[in-house]
Amino acid sequence: MTTRVRGGRYIVQGEAVLHGRVRISGAKNHALAAMCAALLTDEDVILENVPYISDVDSLADLLRALGAVVKRLPDGSLLLNAARVATFEAPTELISENRASFQVMGPLLGRYGFAASAPPGGDVIGQRPIDVHLSGFEAMGAAVTREGERFVARAPAGLTGTRVFMDYPSVSGTQNVMMAAVVARGKTTIVNAATEPEVQELCHLLNAMGARITGVGTQMLEIDGVERLHGVRARIMPDRIEAGTWAIAAVMTGGELFLDEAPWEVMDALLHKLRAAGAEITTEPGGMHVRGGRPIRAVSFQALPYPGLATDLHAPFGALLTQANGVSIIHERVFDNRMLYVSELRKMGAEIVSTGSSAIVSGPTQLHGTRVRALDVRAGAAVLLAALVAQGTTIIDDIYHLDRGYERLDEKLRTMGVEVERA
């Protein structure tokens, strides 16, 4: 298991040029949702390719607190069994560690007719409104109340399928409502559903467990409820955000990487922008090859729901643009506080002006090593990328945020030629 001690730091030597091969780990956002889905059955759910990251560990602790069995098998896969769930209330101290923790609400409510949880934790990158979750539960017949710090959902007679409109195509909201609906009576239609690959993969997992979901990959999911789901063995998809981070790193450092198992089929928006910036990218069934070009060209982008450029790659791409020749404009259309990374990059010499959900980046600028913080998982990735090209040594504090989303990050960096020390 990974460490979840807050704090920690990386000491990074700059002016690196990345070379080599790196294997892309399992997708965090797919793995966390799949773990929650295990609450829907009393049979074993075995998940392969689950990354060794602290968000997985904290969710595993939460599921154990509910009464589920969660353990790593000798082959590295994760076994979950929720046959003996003893409580339907997620412990507040565990909910606060992980934004995906609120996704236990849908499975618990659907299977048992009761669920209680504090609001989700995780990165402080916006309000993360949970109204779309709760209104979906209410539409299916649940009574939802706020009791102190907890949201409590009750449906003692079970949930009833209906038409649920999502005010916003929230990934976690779609997943949560979907997991409640698969065991509701009758048919549920989710309108304006999120279409992200991780949502699609959760649909496939639930269908493999006996659910009846159609419209996968569209903004209208139709779910015919079933009485019970069964166990399954499934594989977590490779992480498109990790693959994107390494692709950006190769371009930013003028390096050359082969990304084993990179899911390039679902990365079109990023690859389009990287090619526009001058990168050479070739894809093949086993992954993709990325070579940085010089000079890096300025490009503008919007962070959008899928199939747009993922908001989780906004900050790393923003770091790249500090090395681009010209002025780039960034618009964030998903979260309302994604600009945390800007202040840290400016400490290193970046010329970035941010206003609300937009930023203007002027480059190229020579970055300089200094002491910065990883303010969230993706802002941490941005300052790490900046450290790779900076002159001198950069100390990055609070790297526990990076441990939440990137598996064995420092080990992978060293295989690519980076001098990095965890302290």
From TrEMBL:
Domain Enolpyruvate transferase span(s) in chain numbering: 13-413
A GO MF term: UDP-N-acetylglucosamine 1-carboxyvinyltransferase activity
Catalytic activity: phosphoenolpyruvate + UDP-N-acetyl-alpha-D-glucosamine = UDP-N-acetyl-3-O-(1-carboxyvinyl)-alpha-D-glucosamine + phosphate
UniProt keyword Plastid present: no
Residues that hold UDP-N-acetyl-alpha-D-glucosamine according to the record: R99, D312, V334
The keyword Cell wall biogenesis/degradation is annotated on this UniProt entry: yes
GO cellular component: cytoplasm
Family per record: Belongs to the EPSP synthase family. MurA subfamily.
Full protein name: UDP-N-acetylglucosamine 1-carboxyvinyltransferase
Organism per entry: Tepidiforma thermophila (strain KCTC 52669 / CGMCC 1.13589 / G233)
Gene: murA
